[in-house]
Amino acid sequence: MHGQQPLFLTPDELRELTGRIRHGAQARALRGMGIEHRVRPDGTVAVLRTHVEQQFAAPTARPKREPQPNWSAI
Protein backbone atom coordinates (compact mmCIF):
# COMPACT_ATOMS: atom_id res chain seq x y z
CA MET A 1 0.00 0.00 0.00
CA HIS A 2 2.86 2.34 -0.73
CA GLY A 3 1.66 5.90 -1.36
CA GLN A 4 -1.91 4.97 -0.57
CA GLN A 5 -3.95 5.88 2.52
CA PRO A 6 -5.06 2.99 4.73
CA LEU A 7 -8.66 1.82 4.31
CA PHE A 8 -9.47 2.51 7.97
CA LEU A 9 -8.56 5.40 10.26
CA THR A 10 -5.49 4.73 12.39
CA PRO A 11 -5.77 4.59 16.20
CA ASP A 12 -4.16 8.06 16.39
CA GLU A 13 -6.66 9.46 13.88
CA LEU A 14 -9.56 7.97 15.85
CA ARG A 15 -8.28 9.60 19.04
CA GLU A 16 -7.92 12.93 17.23
CA LEU A 17 -11.37 12.69 15.64
CA THR A 18 -13.24 11.66 18.78
CA GLY A 19 -11.13 13.29 21.46
CA ARG A 20 -11.40 9.97 23.31
CA ILE A 21 -8.87 7.28 24.20
CA ARG A 22 -11.02 4.33 25.27
CA HIS A 23 -12.73 2.32 22.56
CA GLY A 24 -16.19 2.47 24.12
CA ALA A 25 -15.96 6.24 24.45
CA GLN A 26 -14.77 6.50 20.85
CA ALA A 27 -17.77 4.49 19.66
CA ARG A 28 -20.16 6.73 21.65
CA ALA A 29 -18.54 9.86 20.22
CA LEU A 30 -18.77 8.49 16.68
CA ARG A 31 -22.45 7.63 17.17
CA GLY A 32 -23.08 11.16 18.42
CA MET A 33 -21.34 12.57 15.35
CA GLY A 34 -23.31 10.34 12.98
CA ILE A 35 -20.19 8.56 11.74
CA GLU A 36 -20.66 4.93 10.76
CA HIS A 37 -18.31 2.54 12.49
CA ARG A 38 -17.97 -1.06 13.56
CA VAL A 39 -16.63 -2.51 16.79
CA ARG A 40 -14.22 -5.35 16.13
CA PRO A 41 -14.23 -8.54 18.24
CA ASP A 42 -11.26 -7.20 20.21
CA GLY A 43 -13.20 -4.02 21.09
CA THR A 44 -11.29 -1.66 18.80
CA VAL A 45 -13.25 0.63 16.52
CA ALA A 46 -13.09 0.53 12.72
CA VAL A 47 -14.03 3.59 10.68
CA LEU A 48 -13.76 3.75 6.91
CA ARG A 49 -11.56 6.65 5.86
CA THR A 50 -13.77 7.46 2.86
CA HIS A 51 -16.86 7.78 5.09
CA VAL A 52 -15.16 10.36 7.29
CA GLU A 53 -13.87 12.25 4.25
CA GLN A 54 -17.40 12.36 2.81
CA GLN A 55 -18.92 13.50 6.12
CA PHE A 56 -16.46 16.35 6.51
CA ALA A 57 -16.21 17.38 2.85
CA ALA A 58 -17.33 20.87 1.95
CA PRO A 59 -20.64 20.84 0.13
CA THR A 60 -20.19 21.13 -3.59
CA ALA A 61 -21.57 24.26 -5.14
CA ARG A 62 -24.46 23.79 -7.49
CA PRO A 63 -23.78 24.99 -11.02
CA LYS A 64 -25.46 28.32 -11.69
CA ARG A 65 -28.52 28.11 -13.86
CA GLU A 66 -28.78 30.51 -16.74
CA PRO A 67 -31.60 33.00 -16.30
CA GLN A 68 -34.68 31.98 -18.26
CA PRO A 69 -37.43 34.24 -19.51
CA ASN A 70 -40.69 34.04 -17.60
CA TRP A 71 -42.80 32.83 -20.52
CA SER A 72 -45.97 32.78 -18.45
CA ALA A 73 -45.68 36.57 -17.96
CA ILE A 74 -45.91 37.18 -21.71
What letter string, H or E per element, gives the SSE order? HHEEH
What is the percentage of strand-forming residues? 5-15%
Number of domains: 1
Ends distance: 63 Å
Which of globular, elongated, flat, extended, rod-shaped describes the shape?
Answer: elongated
- State the helicity in percent bands: 25-40%
Low-pLDDT residue spans: none
What is the residue-mean pLDDT, rounded to a whole number? 89
The major pleated sheet works out as: 2 strands, antiparallel
Class from secondary-structure proportions: mainly alpha
Give me the side-by-side strand order of the main sheet: 1-2
Domain DUF4224: 8-52
Organism: Pseudothauera rhizosphaerae
Region (Disordered): 54-74
Protein name: DUF4224 domain-containing protein
Characterise the protein shown here.
The protein has 74 residues and is mainly alpha-helical. It has one domain. The protein has three helices and two strands. It has a two-stranded antiparallel ribbon with strand order 1-2. A hairpin with a 5-residue loop joins strand 1 (38-39) and strand 2 (45-46). The longest helix has 11 residues, at 23-33. It is elongated and about 70 Å long. The N and C termini lie far apart (63 Å). InterPro entries: DUF4224 (IPR025319). Residues 54-74 are annotated as: Disordered. It comes from Pseudothauera rhizosphaerae.
